[in-house]
Design a protein that fits this description.
This protein is of the alpha+beta class. It is about 20% helix and about 25% strand.
Length: about 350
């Protein structure tokens, strides 16, 4: 009729001669039982116990396992020799101390335990497991040895990037090019001028052939060196009308060094170009400008009015007339009123 045990909470016991649960550091053997038996045999509460000897010598010895120094007194005995106090080597001392510690719990009144009842590690570990359910190791720990991704170089937000594309008619219309979607594109892009960024290298159109505001012969835009304003101008078809060369010359003569001039060609820039030599050279074209051009070649000039001969940025393609390789794709940057060649 004893109550049914519903849990083994036996780490702390209070009964007589109790043997509480040992902790995980125990050897899982009979060492506790043996030490307890030795303690019981050594613990003699009757200090009047008489030894079976005779004589007048008093025998005193220490009970081996008690902290309170119980002393046993024997009667005199003639045969008694000098008492030798037992083995004092290290192993014997350790054995007696273990026996004393193990057995002393039976001489304790109240709760008894072999474990450290004040140990909070078990509780803390349990709380940690519960509170970390569904969580993960922070990235700063799990990825601490992983190299960070490369950072993009910082770019001055005031820099403007421009792409100038020029093409002779044969290059634009050739079916042997990499991409030919219509008569207005070659190499995947239509001749014209684009503003681009390092993340958008194709760029956003300012003017181009596909949109209808780039035409045969010469096309022009200016960039203010003061505030960066871009101004576009109508196309100048010097091939179809010789007087267009005069119109373009007069326009170039009206500019001062407060603007950057960008000129690019499409289809045929050679015919009637001799009337543009002086004005182009004033904006930085080479001294061989007139002889450089070939029929249906591709030409680009970036310069500043008054900069002088050979001081501008000039690119030409098309070694022979109607060359399918007459194609220029030039990139520059503009900052604080100055332009810098990038590629092309």
């Amino acid at each position: 009729m004893r109550p049914i045990i519903t849990e083994l909470n036996n780490g702390v016991l209070s009964s007589n001669m109790a043997m509480p649960l040992k902790d995980l550091t125990s050897d899982n053997d009979a060492s506790f039982e043996l030490s307890r038996k030795l303690f019981l045999k050594s613990y003699l509460p009757n200090t009047n116990f008489a030894l079976p000897q005779t004589g007048s010598t008093i025998l005193q010895r220490e009970a081996l396992a008690l902290n309170n120094k119980v002393v046993i007194d024997g009667k005199r005995t003639a045969a008694q020799k000098k008492w030798i106090g037992g083995n004092r080597d290290a192993s014997s001392i350790i054995a007696r101390r273990r026996m004393n510690t193990t057995g002393a719990i039976m001489n304790t009144v109240g709760p008894q335990s072999f474990a450290n009842i004040a140990d909070n590690n078990t509780r803390i570990d349990a709380l940690t497991r519960v509170r970390s359910s569904g969580s993960r190791v922070p990235v700063k720990v799990s990825q601490k040895n992983v190299l960070p991704p490369p950072q993009e170089p910082s770019i001055d937000p005031n820099i403007k990037f421009y792409r100038i594309v020029s093409g002779g008619y044969s290059a634009v219309s050739s079916i042997n090019k990499l991409i030919t979607t219509s008569s207005s594109t070659a190499y995947g892009i239509s001749p014209g001028i684009y503003e681009y960024t390092p993340k958008n290298l194709i760029g956003t159109r300012i003017v181009n052939l596909s949109s209808g505001n780039v035409g045969r012969s010469y096309n022009l835009i200016t960039i203010s060196r003061i505030d960066g304003t871009v101004t576009t101008y109508p196309r100048y078809d010097v091939f179809g009308t010789a007087s267009q060369a005069t119109v373009l010359s007069n326009l170039l003569n009206s500019f001062d060094d407060s603007v950057i001039v960008i000129i690019h060609s499409f289809d045929e820039p050679q015919t009637n170009a001799t009337g543009l030599q002086t004005e182009f050279k004033n904006c930085g074209a080479s001294s061989t400008f007139a002889s450089l051009l070939k029929y249906r070649g591709a030409y680009v000039l970036v310069g500043i009015p008054g900069i002088g001969v050979n001081n501008g940025l000039q690119k030409y393609a098309g070694a022979t007339g109607s060359s399918p390789t007459s194609w220029v794709d030039l990139r520059i940057s503009v900052l604080n009123g100055e332009y810098t060649y990038i590629s092309g």
